[in-house]
């Protein structure tokens, strides 16, 4: 249920919804960050590390690129969907 | 567009890195997703337009240092990678890369580069792998990636040498 405010850029908003479908939380923020994107697992095994929580800028320099970077972070999260493990 | 990640440690190992977000944005890091999920550390995933990989990475380092004068640089990636990472970066299957690495592709006579770190999971310098692929296979890395991997390797090695000099007195 989306009760948060929508991001003004549709590519970023669509990425936030994608992340939410995978269990990530969009935590509203103040200042230049529109929100912090929070990985639900956020555990030591999670290879995201620092990227278990990410800034989502209100006015990024390049919104499409920002959306792509965020999507990649979400896709890389080990817990998102079970891919084959370490090589 | 150059895509790379910078990692820094903060002077206070307990600090919540999100307090620095506005400073980072204002210093020019509005083309990075900032990872603030680990206390005492900050990582920035950049997608930066620049005239060269050198300019992209150096300008990013300058801006982070301006925003966080007391943070310590750890590394820039992509540099040391395993085969799964290489497959990810190139958008090909792990199986494909493994075949090249194991010498199974008989049309290629030049031996695959040596890993920097061997063992159960080996790590290669991305630059070595990308140069080899460019010379000996039809694979072409995305534009600018080889250049970026060389810049990353240089910066990391310079940094490691500095650290070693400091540590060994």
Summary keywords:
heterodimer, A: alpha+beta, three-stranded antiparallel β-sheet, 30% helix, B: 169 residues, alpha+beta, Alpha-Beta Plaits, four-stranded antiparallel β-sheet, 6 helices, elongated, DNA-binding protein (chain B), DNA binding (chain B), DNA-binding (chain B)
What would you note in describing this structure?
- The complex is a heterodimer of chains A (about 90) and B (about 170).
- Chain A is about 30% helix and about 15% strand.
- Chain A has helices spanning about 10-20, 65-75, and strands at about 25-30, 35-40, 55.
- Chain B has 6 helices and 6 strands; from the N terminus they run βαββαββααβαα.
- The mean pLDDT of chain B is about 95.
- In chain B, helix 5 (about 125-135) packs antiparallel against helix 6.
- Helix content of chain B is about 45%, strand content about 20%.
- Chain B has helices at about 20-25, 55-65, 85-90, 95-100, 125-135, 145-165, and strands at about 1-10, 30-35, 40-50, 70-75, 80, 125.
- Chain B has 2 domains: about 1-75, Alpha-Beta Plaits (2-Layer Sandwich); about 80-145, Arc Repressor Mutant, subunit A.
- The interface between A and B is medium-sized, with 32 and 30 residues.
Mean pLDDT of chain A: 86
Helix and strand run of chain A: HEEEH
Q: Runs of chain B with pLDDT <50, length 5+?
A: none
Silhouette of chain B: elongated
Alpha-beta classification of chain A = alpha+beta
How much helicity do the residues of chain A have?
25-40%
Give the tally of β-strands of chain A. 3
Report the sheet-strand fraction of chain B.
Answer: 15-25%
Q: Which pair of chains forms the biggest interface, and how many residues does each contribute? A: A-B, 32 and 30 residues
**Gap from first CA to last CA of chain B:** 40 Å
- How many helices of chain A does DSSP assign? 2
Distance between the termini of chain A: 37 Å
| Overall mean pLDDT of chain B | 95
Main β-sheet description of chain A: 3 strands, antiparallel
CATH C-level class of the largest domain in chain B is: Alpha Beta
Number of DSSP-assigned strands of chain B: 6
Would you tell me the structural class of the helices and strands of chain B? alpha+beta
SSE string of chain B, helix = H, strand = E?
EHEEHEEHHEHH
């Amino acid at each position: 249920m989306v009760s948060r405010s929508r991001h003004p850029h549709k590519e970023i908003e669509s990425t936030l919804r994608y992340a939410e479908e995978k269990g990530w939380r969009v935590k509203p923020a103040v200042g230049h960050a529109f929100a912090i994107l929070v990985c639900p697992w956020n555990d030591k095994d999670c290879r995201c590390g620092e990227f278990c929580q990410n800034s989502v800028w209100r006015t990024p320099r390049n919104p499409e690129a920002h959306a792509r970077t965020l999507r990649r972070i979400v896709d890389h999260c080990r817990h998102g969907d079970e891919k084959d493990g370490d090589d | 567009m150059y895509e790379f990640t910078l990692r820094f440690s903060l002077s206070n190992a307990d600090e919540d890195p999100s307090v620095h977000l506005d400073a980072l944005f204002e210093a020019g890091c509005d083309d990075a997703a900032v990872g603030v999920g680990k206390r005492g550390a900050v990582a920035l995933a950049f997608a930066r337009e620049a005239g060269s990989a050198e300019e992209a990475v150096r300008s990013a380092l300058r801006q982070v240092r301006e925003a966080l004068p007391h943070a310590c640089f750890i590394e820039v990636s992509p540099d040391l990678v395993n085969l799964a990472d290489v497959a990810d970066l190139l958008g090909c299957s792990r199986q494909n890369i493994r075949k090249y690495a194991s010498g199974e592709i008989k049309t290629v006579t030049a031996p695959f580069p040596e890993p920097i770190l061997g063992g159960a999971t080996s790590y290669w310098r991305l630059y070595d792998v990308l140069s080899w692929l460019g010379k000996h296979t039809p694979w072409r890395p995305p534009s600018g990636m080889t250049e970026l991997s060389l810049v990353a390797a240089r910066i990391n090695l310079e940094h490691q040498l500095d650290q070693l000099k400091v540590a060994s007195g």
